[in-house]
């Protein structure tokens, strides 16, 4: 034995056997710190090396020569390390092959067992392994955290990974992965930037990157898919290779990708328990709400918002349903339903638009219908119909009813038109017209006249209708010949309309209300 330094404790055969005047070391156990500061072949040891090490257990820190501040507890813990600065190894064979790599902490049987075999100085450092065989195979990886038996067990070069659980990231050599929950990211080999939280989340992922899985068995069959987000038990559970999917909710997009081709089952977003549950090959669908698009398997470009919207149909395409149970049974194309229970029973028709709660509720196979208003067209079974109504009124009582096939329109309403109205086509020469109503009192003389400004360009005036109320409720037109006492006329000037009395006396015609209706063109 070479003489020891100050403040050393050596208990056990061969402990601190070669200590070369180094201070503050504690060695308890057979051959613990046996070669501390041992030199051979002309090698030199600095005064600051080989100090303040603690070794408890048979052959712990056996080969340490220059390391200081190391702690090793357990049979052959940090056995091979020759320059074990600041390492902590607790457990049988923990950090067994560590070779001068600093700031590593290993707790557990064989934790970080192979760390830094053959690595350069910048590799194999700053790792934390807690658990039996955690980071067992690591050689060059840095800044890894492994907590739990078998976590990151086969990782050799992957860095910046975090694994908490049992067998998380077991096969990993990727970088910057986070796995929390037993067997999460178990199979990952080269994938990086993945986050898996939950038992068996991303368990079969092999090479996928940038995936986020939160919940039991989320993305559990993903192998090579990238940039997916799955939150909720079994969300995206069957997806293997599709990318850029979003599934939030229990079993959302559960079957996505089964039997799908390269360009199928892509671009889907599902938020809500079992939304898009059955989708296998459909693409670019958006599903938001409990059970939305639940039974949908094959169609593309659908949008469903609201519990059970588009829930039962399986093949619909390019359809939008917003509202609880809207288009619940639909397998059609290009349908739009906005409002709870809109087009509830619809199955196979296309190109319908329903806006308002329960609009087109009972229509099953209709095409090309438009219904606007609560319960509008509730019982309409046909196609190419227009309803604007805020009740379940039939076509004879709806505010507006139209038939696109017949080019007909019924209005059950008073109609006010602010602008010009054309009755016919412009090509046919039909003018765009307006009307103007004027009132005046006739002259107090049997042959007198009165005038009123019409405020129009006289060349635009098409017709003038004049009626004089000679007694209450009785109206007479101009030039009424049967009775000379009711005779009057009118004429139009560039600025005025003039009423001319021509009666034999004032008995019936003088100072009476006159109604004037002017029709003029644009």
In short:
The chain is mainly β and 522 residues long. Helix content is 0%, strand content 24%. Among the domains are: 161-227; 421-521, Sandwich (Immunoglobulin-like).
Structure description:
This protein has 522 residues and is mostly beta strands. Among the domains are: 161-227; 421-521, Sandwich (Immunoglobulin-like). It has strands at 9-11, 26-28, 54-56, 71-73, 88-90, 105-107, 128-130, 145-147, 162-164, 178-180, 195-197, 212-214, 229-231, 246-248, 269-271, 286-288, 303-305, 320-322, 336-338, 353-355, 370-372, 385-388, 400-403, 408-411, 421-422, 432-441, 449-453, 461-471, 474-476, 488-492, 496-501, 513-521. The strands form 3 sheets. The protein has a 24-stranded mixed beta sheet, with no helix packed on it. A 5-stranded antiparallel beta sheet has the order 25-26-32-28-29, with no helix packed on it. β23 (400-403) and β24 form a beta hairpin. The radius of gyration is 45 Å and the shape is rod-shaped. The protein starts with 8 loop residues before the first strand and ends with a strand. The mean pLDDT is 91.
């Amino acid at each position: 034995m070479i003489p020891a330094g100050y403040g050393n404790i050596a208990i056990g055969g061969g402990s601190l056997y070669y200590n070369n005047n180094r201070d503050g070391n504690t060695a308890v156990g057979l051959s613990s710190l046996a070669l501390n500061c041992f030199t051979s072949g002309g090698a030199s040891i600095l005064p600051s090396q080989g100090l303040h090490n603690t070794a408890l257990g048979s052959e712990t820190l056996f080969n340490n020569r220059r390391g200081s501040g190391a702690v090793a507890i357990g049979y052959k813990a940090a056995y091979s390390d020759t320059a074990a600065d600041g390492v902590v190894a607790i457990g049988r064979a923990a950090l067994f092959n560590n070779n001068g790599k600093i700031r590593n902490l290993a707790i557990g049987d064989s934790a970080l067992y192979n760390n830094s075999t053959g690595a350069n100085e910048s590799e194999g450092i700053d790792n934390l392994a807690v658990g039996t065989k955690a980071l067992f195979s690591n050689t060059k990886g840095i800044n890894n955290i492994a907590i739990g038996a078998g976590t990151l067990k086969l990782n050799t070069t992957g860095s910046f990974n975090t694994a908490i659980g049992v067998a998380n990231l077991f096969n990993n050599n990727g970088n910057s992965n986070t796995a929390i929950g037993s067997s999460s990211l178990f199979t990952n080999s080269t994938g990086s930037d993945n986050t898996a939280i939950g038992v068996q989340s991303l368990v079969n992922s092999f090479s996928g990157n940038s995936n986020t899985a939160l919940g039991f068995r989320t993305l559990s069959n993903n192998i090579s898919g990238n940039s997916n987000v799955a939150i909720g038990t079994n969300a995206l559970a069957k997806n293997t290779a599709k990318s850029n999917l979003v599934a939030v909710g229990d079993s959302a997009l559960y079957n996505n990708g089964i039997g799908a081709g390269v360009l199928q089952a892509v671009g889907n977003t599902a938020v809500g328990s079992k939304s898009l549950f059955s989708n296998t090959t459909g693409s670019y669908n958006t599903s938001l709400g409990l059970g939305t698009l639940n039974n949908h398997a094959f169609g593309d470009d659908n949008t469903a918002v609201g519990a059970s919207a588009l829930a039962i149909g399986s093949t619909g395409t390019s359809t939008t349903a917003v509202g609880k149970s809207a288009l619940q049974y639909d397998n059609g194309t290009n349908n739009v339903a906005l409002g709870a229970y809109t087009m509830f029973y619809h199955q196979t028709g296309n190109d319908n638009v329903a806006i308002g709660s329960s609009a087109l509720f009972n229509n099953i196979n209709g095409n090309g219908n438009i219904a606007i208003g609560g319960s509008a067209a509730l019982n309409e079974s046909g196609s190419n119909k227009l309803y604007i109504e805020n009740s379940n009124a039939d076509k004879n009582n709806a505010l507006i009813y139209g038939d696109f096939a017949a080019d007909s329109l019924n209005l059950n309403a008073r109609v006010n038109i602010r602008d010009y109205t054309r009755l016919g086509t412009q090509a046919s020469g039909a003018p765009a017209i307006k009307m103007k109503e004027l009132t005046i009192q006739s002259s107090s003389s049997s042959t007198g006249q009165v005038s009123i400004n019409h405020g129009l360009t006289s060349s635009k005036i098409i017709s003038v209708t004049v009626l004089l109320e000679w007694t209450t409720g009785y109206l007479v037109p101009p030039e009424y010949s049967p009775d000379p006492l009711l005779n009057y006329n009118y004429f139009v000037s560039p600025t005025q309309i003039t009423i001319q009395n021509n009666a034999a006396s004032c008995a019936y015609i003088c100072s009476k209300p006159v109604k004037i209706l002017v029709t003029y063109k644009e």
